[in-house]
Target: Class V aminotransferase
Amino acid sequence: QPNYKHLVVGTDVSIPIINGKYTKEINFDNAATTPPLTSVMNAINDFAPWYSSIHRGTGYKSHLSSEIYDATRKTVSHFVNMDNDYSTIIFVKNTTDAINKVSTKLSQTISNGVILSSFMEHHSNDLPWRKNFQIDYINVNDKGNLSIKDCEQKLKKYNGRIRLVTISGASNVTGYKTDIHDFAKLAHKYGAKILIDGAQLIPHSPIDMKPDYSSEHIDYLAFSGHKIYAPFGTGVLIGPKNVFKHGNPTQSGGGTVKIVTPNYVMWDDIPYKEEAGTPNIMGIVALNAALKTLNEIGMDNIEKMEINLTEYTLSRLNRIKDVVIYGNGKDCSNRIGIITFNIKGLHHSIVANILSKETGISVRSGCFCAQPYIQKLLHLKKTDIDIHKNNPNSPHPGMVRVSFGLYNDYSEVDTFIDILNKIVNNKSYYIRKYSSKDFEI
Ligand code: PMP
Model:
């Protein structure tokens, strides 16, 4: 099994845990954000003396910065195998920003259209559509897998009104990996476009957007730099040139125009027209370095390594009594390295807190910004949801999530399994300890 720990910053820092002790952090919260690669930090440091505001300055540094900024589009294009004739790359803040941009842009031209999202989505691929469109959702089965049959039924039912199918490439809750090309084919068959929320897919699995003429082509792709080993603040939106070329940009201001008079505006060419204001040049330098390093390692290798680790974890987790695993159980065939579970009789936030305080394991617990999906996976009834609605500060239903990055290893999983065994075998002790003043849900 390859070990990529040395490629990542901060994997050897010690953090405080219970009883005044310190331990090395075990970060199993990579679905929230990934730590930066060493190559990324080096690229930032190397570029720091040379950076300047892009596209407007005439100075040497400004030219250099502009060059790197635009060259990063080539790196992105190569990384996702984009069709350069059909698509444009717009740099944004993050996935949320990207999806909001598409929603606003499409609302300029689509009237009486329906957006087909799914019950598996992160709120960022649901709420931005609600404000501008009628929306419907593809159903999920008991395991939380997207139903392609239901997708087709909905496409038929709306009789051509569905203009976009917008789904995650991989779920941030169950790790379920969508057959994006099958969904693309189906959407196109019914005259709709497809958007893939790639926030979780892109850092953990190879992706191929395929050429425009292919029926399996991905029309829109969104992802975040901070989930792909670069720092916060940069994201990528890829979409059809002909959509963004026409009409007004979603945001206007500096950098978006060619000519302005008091009563006339000529917008700049794409993608500049859609990148209002001074861009995050250092963030883009970082993103460039991250994608190049991942490409050198090979996304196939990363995926294989993370899935092996996931398989190992699941096989051990399955043997612990009272552990309930959500999603596809032990099956790793359509999956990225995410596992969500609960321990019967313990609130998820207590489990997460014990992991952190006893052994320095960072996980995420709760609803992971995907409340409708959690409601389905937990089979919550309307009355359960109403109770929570009436008392939003009451303990949330939810789960514990473990999400791997390329630098996690087997010994970390062993530590995790050991503490879980201890928790399960000493439930009442831990409930007492972590429900006391030490800890509030
Ligand atoms: N979609 C998915 C599937 C995600 O996991 C996330 C982040 N958890 C987002 C969208 C939103 O990403 P960001 O916060 O970087 O905009």
